[in-house]
Known about the structure:
Elements: E1 2-6, H1 11-22, E2 26-31, H2 38-43, E3 46-49, H3 59-62, E4 67-70, H4 82-103, E5 107-111, E6 126-127, H5 142-159, E7 165-170, E8 172-174, H6 181-189, E9 195-197, E10 206-208, H7 209-220, E11 229-232, H8 240-251, E12 258-260, H9 262-278, H10 289-294, E13 300-301, H11 304-310, H12 318-334
Parallel strand pairs: 1-2, 1-4, 2-3, 4-5, 5-7, 6-13, 7-11, 8-10, 9-12
Helix pairs in contact: 1-7, 4-5, 8-12
Amino acid sequence: xxxxxxxxxxxxxxxxxxxxxxxxxxxxxxxxxxxxxxxxxxxxxxxxxxxxxxxxxxxxxxxxxxxxxxxxxxxxxxxxxxxxxxxxxxxxxxxxxxxxxxxxxxxxxxxxxxxxxxxxxxxxxxxxxxxxxxxxxxxxxxxxxxxxxxxxxxxxxxxxxxxxxxxxxxxxxxxxxxxxxxxxxxxxxxxxxxxxxxxxxxxxxxxxxxxxxxxxxxxxxxxxxxxxxxxxxxxxxxxxxxxxxxxxxxxxxxxxxxxxxxxxxxxxxxxxxxxxxxxxxxxxxxxxxxxxxxxxxxxxxxxxxxxxxxxxxxxxxxxxxxxxxxxxxxxxxxx
Length: 335
């Protein structure tokens, strides 16, 4: 199989590319010229320059491609304008669908997100693939709104018989090259005094990146999965503070035991956001209001469909996944 992976410099995309390569497939990555390509070059994966936001740049990347894994997205919840999220996630997905259909690719796999269920899961509701999704449009939910709209676009192409598509909706993905969830927790644990905002301890759909990648490949290569979407998450309950405690043990750091009132943390996050905007910071701040919101909400995923129909099971335990992340982080710090 000859596959194209978008977002291959990111967390999920890089793991999909690695797993495809390990399975003996020909792998091509679409990347912007401004992206950090060190990891891709180390793997020997073919890189073609282009941008999902630029439709005219895509045809060369799709030449000879059989299967597209579309993982590119702006993954900065609560940080950025609606126009930025719309351009990368919505218009970028539409551009990839259009270019893939025109190139005659046989399959298109879209990496969606469990965050489209965020409002549906209030009250402990277990979300399956048929759970209705509606998201209130606010600056803190631009990411979720864009992912939901792109998800719908993908299946419009299937309905109109323009492309054979499938989608996965991963939970909270972690592992090497995670610069969102794991990075924030690790940075908190590295502080001289380890504090935690609030005492909430929500259940979270934590899943290791290579397990998501394996599922993506399984879905993209299964005839049963054509026109289907699948939740990808853990088989057992995981709570956020338990995840942080496990990471603290792996990092040989104290577990969080000083709890800052949530309201005070929210004020501090607001100040950090304001300062970042005033200083025109390009990177998302370490702490923002959207990330704090996740500390008080739960997303519960029903993953029975992918287990029943395709036989997928996660393989990496929580302790093993955290160990692999911490080892990767230490290597990055050493240079």
